[in-house]
Design goal:
The complex is a heterodimer of chains A (about 350) and B (about 270).
Chain A lengths: L7 H24 L3 E7 L7 H9 L2 E7 L2 H10 L6 E2 L3 H9 L3 E2 L29 E13 L22 E4 L2 H12 L8 H14 L3 E5 L3 H6 L5 E5 H10 L3 E4 L7 E6 L1 E2 L5 H12 L1 H11 L6 H6 L2 H4 L8 H5 L9 H14 L2
Chain B lengths: L1 H4 L1 H22 L19 H30 L3 H12 L6 H12 L4 H8 L11 H24 L4 H9 L4 H30 L2 H6 L7 H10 L5 H25 L10
Helix pairs in contact in B: 2-12, 3-7, 3-9, 7-9, 8-9, 9-12, 11-12
Classes of the chains: A alpha/beta (about 350), B mainly alpha (about 270).
Chain lengths: ~350, ~270
């Protein structure tokens, strides 16, 4: 046997190096004062536009992402981090407004609001349109690989079909997963009837053995790479996915679906409110909106941007479904706390 | 004067260890309106199965780490210094890369269209479903935490005086007896700190089960994360679960330290 652990020297040198480096980096970050802290969904913007914004206004964009409304809510509610622009969806907007978590916008700083189609303003979650500027909208649909699923698809039932055991993906958040089960059963996605929720839970429990995984953004890799064949996700993301795998198809089931509007808002106590409004205004600029649409595949609420879209996109029923299709879709509303806790309990039981 | 040197670390501990624990306790014992309550602990039995599953999986991972790590550490301690250096370097090497990246790498190894299964089907063999199983989660734990088992055992073993071993041999002990009566008892403190360093992160992990388990069965870490990032946002319940988890872990450590009594104490946490 030999004595001593002689490795400590190179490692301590390495540690010192990383420490010095990170100090330097922290030092760099602090020197710039004119910033706007943007907190957005992952893969939901063309990051190149930050440069354009900085060149135009001299404001540097500090960009971070989240992958669910709930994560955003908890960050803002917890108060640990400060953001200037956030992009919650409809139901989360109404929850945040009711809990006094959003700042009223000064629309004189956001002249580009005039470009937004009035259909997407004055929505139930913000009836006076005091807090929100619509960023993008879209629907949830069924994405499947046509080399595996050769039958006609028009129902969420595909997600519960034993034929495809082991190749099915499901949303890894309770609201969306329960929403789909409720739709398949013919109930409203906003039901507060616990017996209907229980039925939806039973359906999900039966589905679980058929699943490849519960997932969020990982779905890109798995559907594109053929690792899984069926999964529900956002229409805009489907547009991105077919670029990498043309075998993928999209269906907005007959039972209806969820339609959502994601809105740019300023959280209460934001330190750079004027910068935030400048950023929101910039995002509504037609040229920028078009760049974002092209990058993300989501649908724009801007009238001007829509008019300038190529016909091919305008006629794409995945991105811009017909009025009849949209009639079948329902937006989420904020649920009472008791029901939210019930959702969480069902979710724990489902995964047990 | 020497005491003075520990001040930076004590400040660090106070801010980043003690203060958060106090926060967890405060949150666990208050309600949303800020008043004192035990309500958060009232329905813990709902989560019993999650507690049990997490414990079992962490125990399995720890046991596998001992089975692999102990012989390795022993063999290593018997080698020459040059070889030791190389091997320790190799054991630490994966830790230079981010934990998350390593776990993502495992995904592409285990997937149905991944490295192993592509190889199998290229050889004309049937493919095996490995990803998104509990086995994959345990594998992820073992892979990520194995170095934390090997290193403490190794560092205790290289400090065993050769003269003690020689004395036993002089007195007629065969090599099996030397191991059983001398080396194993003397290496126990290393094993105990290895167990702590593997079991604790395994029992509280959430990202490994998310990435390699397909989010199908919740572990304690997932359950706690859900209280903060789920629909209801209940940091009080999340803190209560964390607190219970800490108490259970501390209890396990105390029991384990009993085993090592008379030897050097295992490192607590």
């Amino acid at each position: 046997m030999h004595h001593g652990l002689k490795l400590s020297k190179p490692i301590s040198v390495l540690l010192l190096l990383t420490m010095t480096l990170s100090m330097l980096l922290i030092g760099c970050q602090k020197s710039n004062k004119n910033v706007v802290n943007v907190f957005n969904w992952g893969l939901y913007i063309d990051e190149d536009i930050f440069k354009t914004f900085e060149n135009q206004t001299g404001i540097r964009v500090n960009y971070q992402t989240y992958d669910s409304n709930e994560m955003l809510y908890s960050k803002i509610k917890g108060g640990g981090a400060s953001y200037d622009v956030i992009i919650p969806s409809d139901y989360m907007v109404s929850r945040m407004i009711s809990e006094d978590m959003l700042e009223k916008l000064d629309y004189t700083n956001i002249p580009n609001i005039s470009k937004i189609d009035d259909n997407y303003r004055y929505q139930p979650y913000d009836p006076d349109n005091a807090y929100t500027v619509p960023y993008m909208w879209g629907t949830v649909g069924l994405i499947y690989n046509s080399t595996v699923v050769t039958e006609d698809v028009n129902s969420w039932g595909l997600l519960f079909d034993e034929k495809y055991a082991g190749r099915i993906l499901m949303f890894d958040n309770s609201r969306d997963a329960m929403g789909i089960a409720l739709l398949y059963l013919g109930y409203s996605i906003n039901t507060t009837d616990k017996s209907e929720l229980d039925e939806a839970y039973d359906l999900l429990k039966r589905q679980k053995p058929l699943l490849y995984a519960y997932t969020m953004d990982q779905i890109y890799d798995w559907l594109e790479g053929g690792e899984a064949a069926i999964g529900p996700y956002y229409a805009g993301d489907y547009i991105t996915m077919i670029e990498n795998n043309p075998d993928l198809k999209f269906c907005l089931p007959d039972e209806g679906s969820n339609v959502f509007i994601d809105c740019m808002c300023i959280p209460k106590g934001a330190k750079n409110k004027a910068n935030a409004e400048a950023f929101i205004n910039f995002m509504c600029d037609t040229e920028i909106a078009l760049l974002n649409c092209a990058e993300t595949g989501y649908s724009t609420p801007s009238k001007e941007a829509y008019d300038e879209l190529p016909d091919e996109t305008k006629n794409n029923t995945v991105m811009y479904p017909s009025a009849e299709t949209l009639d079948r879709c329902e937006a989420y509303v904020n649920l009472p706390r008791e029901i939210l806790e019930y959702y969480d309990n069902l979710w724990v039981n489902l995964k047990t | 004067m020497k005491r003075f040197l520990s001040i930076p670390y004590i400040v660090w501990m106070a801010i980043f260890v003690v203060a958060p624990i106090i926060l967890v306790v405060v949150y666990a014992l208050t309600s949303g309106s800020g008043s004192f309550t035990f309500e958060n602990f009232a329905h813990m039995e709902n989560f019993l199965s999650v507690f049990i599953r997490s414990m079992i999986m962490a125990l399995i991972a720890t046991a596998i780490c001992i089975l692999i790590g102990y012989p390795l550490a022993y063999a290593l301690a018997c080698e020459g210094p040059r070889l030791q250096k190389i091997f320790i370097m190799l054991i630490m090497l994966p830790m230079w890369m981010n934990f998350l990246l390593r776990t993502y790498a495992w995904m592409s190894i285990l997937e149905n269209t991944g490295l192993i299964n592509s190889l199998l089907s290229a050889l004309g063999l049937p493919t095996v479903n490995m990803i998104n199983t509990q086995g994959a989660v345990v594998l992820g734990m073992v892979y990520n935490y194995l170095p934390f088992m090997v290193l403490p055992i190794y560092s205790v073993m290289v400090r065993i005086e050769p003269s003690v071993v020689e004395a036993a041999q002089d007195l007629g002990a065969n090599s099996f007896k030397v191991f059983l009566r001398i080396i194993f008892p003397l290496s126990l403190p290393g094993v105990l700190s290895g167990i702590t360093m593997v079991f604790v992160p395994s029992v509280s992990t959430f990202i490994i089960s998310r990435l390699l388990g397909g989010g199908k069965s919740l572990l304690l870490g997932d359950l706690i994360e859900m209280q903060f990032l789920g629909s209801a946002y209940n940091p009080h319940l999340g803190s209560a679960i964390s607190l219970i988890m800490m108490v259970i872990i501390i209890a396990c450590m105390m029991v384990m330290n009993r085993f090592g009594e008379g030897e050097e104490r295992a490192v607590m946490l």
